[in-house]
Amino acid sequence: xxxxxxxxxxxxxxxxxxxxxxxxxxxxxxxxxxxxxxxxxxxxxxxxxxxxxxxxxxxxxxxxxxxxxxxxxxxxxxxxxxxxxxxxxxxxxxxxxxxxxxxxxxxxxxxxxxxxxxxxxxxxxxxxxxxxxxxxxxxxxxxxxxxxxxxxxxxxxxxxxxxxxxxxxxxxxxxxxxxxxxxxxxxxxxxxxxxxxxxxxxxxxxxxxxxxxxxxxxxxxxxxxxxxxxxxxxxxxxxxxxxxxxxxxxxxxxxxxxxxxxxxxxxxxxxxxxxxxxxxxxxxxxxxxxxxxxxxxxxxxxxxxxxxxxxxxxxxxxxxxxxxxxxxxxxxxxxxxxxxxxxxxxxxxxxxxxxxxxxxxxxxxxxxxxxxxxxxxxxxxxxxxxxxxxxxxxxxxxxxxxxxxxxxxxxxxxxxxxxxxxxxxxxxxxxxxxxxxxxxxxxxxxxxxxxxxxxxxxxxxxxxxxxxxxxxxxxxxxxxxxxxxxxxxxxxxxxxxxxxxxxxxxxxxxxxxxxxxxxxxxxxxxxxxxxxxxxxxxxxxxxxxxxxxxxxxxxxxxxxxxxxxxxxxxxxxxxxxxxxxxxxxxxxxxxxxxxxxxxxxxxxxxxxxxxxxxxxxxxxxxxxxxxxxxxxxxxxxxxxxxxxxxxxxxxxxxxxxxxxxxxxxxxxxxxxxxxxxxxxxxxxxxxxxxxxxxxxxxxxxxxxxxxxxxxxxxxxxxxxxxxxxxxxxxxxxxxxxxxxxxxxxxxxxxxxxxxxxxxxxxxxxxxxxxxxxxxxxxxxxxxxxxxxxxxxxxxxxxxxxxxxxxxxxxxxxxxxxxxxxxxxxxxxxxxxxxxxxxx
Length: 839
Prior knowledge:
Structural class: mainly alpha
Helix content: over 70%
Strand content: under 5%
Radius of gyration: 33 Å
């Protein structure tokens, strides 16, 4: 109405408000047009600048929005709403200095509001100015009218937050006095006791601390941290900083007493197994195993797995359990010399199940399969047995068989979501993507595809496994799509914290709020992001080295050796197959589109309103990107900032900069990697390639050449590359991974030494320590991918030798064609942690 009046048609603030309204309706372009027009007509209006900032914020352009808010504040410096909006953006962007100033202005304008005090105190806390933060919190606490004996949740949270700041400031005595003073007004009584125990330990008041930890154990006898605290308080712990360590007998005596007080608790019987050696360990382990086998405890092996670093303890466990099995088979007792009540038949079942896990852990897969097959023969309805059999096949390296047995396990209980997810994961590792999606669809929303629904739910374990599967299959576009989806999830998680900046101050959940902020700061350290980013970088590097050609060129048929009749027959067969596949895909697509049309439209509208338009992720475009190295760097930057302690981060950085010809950045990457592990096999390859590249570029600027020469001198110590590589091979003569890298570099430096390089890489004698599935597959891949030139005959010899060593591994099975073997090897080797001995 206002703008329809010619007199006010150019009114700036009204135009800006119209733009804001249009933005809420999802009409972005029109909204910006009106707001900018409003600004041009009234550039000195704080309303126009504020609205422009709101539009920028809605599009996630937080830096631009902050500039707009600052311009608005120049025109109206005491505007509460603008100050609040500015403070939200400052904490979101972690501009802590600016946030403190803004919160100070808000405190001056609204000193009676709780959020003004709390926000200002949090700013000082995050800036690690603990004294000022504590003064502000104490001033605010004194204004709260809460009776001494009344428990108020918000006041309780304030007290606990105040105490957290004291502990972070290392004010241990003050923290203890504070928690004792306000103990009755705190809701979380357990946390009060934990803080008391921790502070008493810090202050060296060990007798009082021991009483606190004994009380905590009485409350929860399964918390290992309480036992560690008790040992420190009694000066028995090997970690205790106070007096000489207590004797083993004293430590075991403590656990025995607690075990009598809490006969049903597992921890006081499990923890002594970490301490006891030799015959004492045998005695304690014998008691522990018998009770759990009789009771039937499926996670028993998981409970004991951490003991498997000690070869003596492994031998004792194996001897005990194999004796149990032999005795139970003959007389239904744990020992043939026992009398009394016989063990139930299930005891033998759990013993066999344990032995299967035991030998799987030791890499003795044939024995593991024998035991698990015996257990399945006696009880073919127990899910855990099929699950374990699948796991053994996974460790063997036969992922198809592993997926088959995991599918068998889930068929025994189709309502179990955990086993369903495990089955889908195993299928993805066997590159059965379609089957995995169908498996997951049993638990996803009806009317939408499982893949889309899992993306909506931010199910990143599924997406990272899909990335690896697509990568192994060479479907780089699909893999990159999943990588970008995972990246978007992390962006959304970061963006979602926006809602909590005001909520947490209003609800006084201050400890959780500070924890959230600290988590968000290191969010991309998460394994899911690292895995997606690493795969994305690897794919972009591969696309840079081998750009994809047009599809028409890819589908060309080499007809030189075919007659006209054979060519016609092949083309006809190919057309029929393509037509059939196209019709099937169109049918499925139409059905899916019909089901999803209304839901997707509504969801897209909601997303558009919330965060603006998102660029569609089209696999074909992603895999034919013009600048793959620039895209790779986008994934690399968060890793360099947050995962700098992982050597892979710097070696991936080197591979990117190596292709870009950035010598100083290459030097930076290898130096950082060298500081983490100077004997890493991948680093060795990078160092030699780097040195070779530097020597091939004689036209570098003088200052760059000087820096490179100085730094490389520290690494190579006046050795030429051949000598450096020979020394590396000599010092790592028992490690197959190191021998493989050294052999690759031998061939890289001198192509005439192919035979010697292959002989080094394919060594399988008794001195080699790491002859496992992972490393053998890496060698197979190297023999097939050109790292040693053309060596088909040597590959076949090596495959036979590996098959004799690992007869169940699918990559080494006889009768597999060379191309199929290459694919299988890549399927296993690209994602090296698939075969790790983990659940």
